[in-house]
Amino acid sequence: MAPAHASRPEGGGPDVSGGGSPARWRRPLERLQHRLHLDRGRPHRRSLLTIGVCFLAGLMITVSAINARGTDLRPERHTELIDLVRSEAARSQALAEQVAALRSEIDGLAASTGDDAAVDDLAELDRLAGLEPVAGPGVTVTLTDAPLSVDPPDVDGDLLVVHQQDIQAVVNVLWRGGAEAMTIQGQRVISTTGIKCVGNTVVLHGVPYAPPYVISAIGDPEALESALDRSAYLDVYADYVDAYGLGYEQQVEPELRLPGFNGASTLEWATPAGVG
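Structure (tokenized):
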């Protein structure tokens, strides 16, 4: 008997091809094969993505290592600052020594002119300007920050460190007490000396210093100590010494030897008294 042939319904229905395989079976099979092909491609893309991420991570690690130059990228902030201050202070000290050597050479050339009166006048002016070393009895005051372990709640950290106004207060009190010469951190204080706070350090004549801050003054020790004891500002500072551990030390010195100022002493901005 001849096989019966199904007619295609109106609107399009399943077709029958040779070999007896209906189209509705072949099309799902093709879709399945296509999905299997896509699935085979996905691991390849995931591998490429993984390789890309690893490449970027390696690049970031390499760049960090180059920038660090073999050092810790997260050093202790306080230690790093102290090391920087010490390094810059040493460099400035070396430059100051060069200035002192050149000034000594200039003084030698001036003395060779044969004008003794001019040489004496120059020496007296150097002494008055603080350019010559001096010696004598006096007082030393040392100021330090509160210990790092001190961290009281609701207290601004700026209140636990020494500021330029604290150093200036001690310097001004010592001048009023009759100081004849003074140093801060071993640097001679002259008419152009300025004290500036930069972060947690104090800059003096362009040199940064970390605490402790040492102020030494030549003069009558009894008068200097009396002036310090009468200072209203230092009375307030003493309250912080008692409450939070800021450092304050006062010591009579039988013999102080203060160096002459050896930095640049040229006035760049000045107005004569009573003018302007």
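The chain has two domains: 23-68, 82-258. The two ends are 131 Å apart (CA to CA).
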